[in-house]
Design brief:
The chain is of the alpha+beta class. It folds into 2 domains: 42 residues, no CATH class; 146 residues, no CATH class. It has 3 helices and 6 strands. The strands form 2 sheets. Strands 3-4-1-5 form a 4-stranded mixed β-sheet. The protein has a two-stranded antiparallel ribbon with strand order 2-6. Strand 3 and strand 4 form a beta hairpin. It is globular and about 50 Å long.
Length: 194
């Protein structure tokens, strides 16, 4: 937000005077400034938020991989919206993402759009700890981490308030993709139900 300073009769040759502001005139984000206030720019959240966001984007994939799910959606009745990863069944017996508490741990990308028949197709990506031997359920990042990473930036400039507004779509799309059952990205012998 830009604020401007009114011309002062005491100003000489482009000299800038900065009057101390009263407490009531202190800069408040989102509040229009009066004509008598000097120019200033609202720089948004502190620079530490940018560094923190970059750290999350670079370090989170070291512990949590991005899994590209198979596009087998023949059993899904409604293709007008992306299938829910919690309804993804593997080997006909287990749902790896069934216990995922937050949709922030997955994202979908529209691949084809059918405005008439609503037979859309999507790529689905899920964040999880890589599976070990005999692992049947994925482990997402905790909800507080997901909320901090992907949540909207707070209106306040306090460090730690709000999220970092990292795009889950951009982060997951640009990551290296794995397949849950070891068949490569999107090659799982799994299907969506519902």
């Amino acid at each position: 937000m830009l604020r401007r300073e009114a011309a002062s009769p005491g100003r000489l040759h482009g000299e800038r005077r900065h009057r101390p502001r009263a407490q009531s005139q202190a800069h408040q984000p989102g509040v229009a400034a009066g004509d008598d206030e000097r120019a200033c720019v609202d720089h948004g959240p502190p620079a530490t938020a940018g560094a923190e966001g970059l750290a999350y984007e670079k370090l989170l994939p070291l512990g949590f991989h991005v899994f590209q799910l198979a596009e087998n959606v023949q059993n899904v009745n409604d293709h007008s919206h992306p299938p829910d990863p919690r309804q993804y069944v593997c080997g006909g017996t287990y749902y790896p993402w069934y216990y995922y508490p937050s949709p922030l741990a997955w994202t979908s990308l529209l691949q084809s759009y059918d405005p008439v028949g609503h037979d859309n197709s999507y790529e689905i990506f899920v964040l999880s700890v890589p599976p070990g031997a005999n692992t049947y359920h994925g482990t997402p990042p905790d909800v507080a981490t997901l909320t901090r990473m992907f949540g909207p930036v707070a209106k306040s400039n306090e460090v730690g308030d709000g999220g970092l507004d990292i795009s889950p779509v951009n982060m997951m799309r640009s990551a290296t993709h794995d397949g849950w059952t070891g068949q490569g990205p999107g090659g799982d012998s799994c299907v969506f139900l519902g």
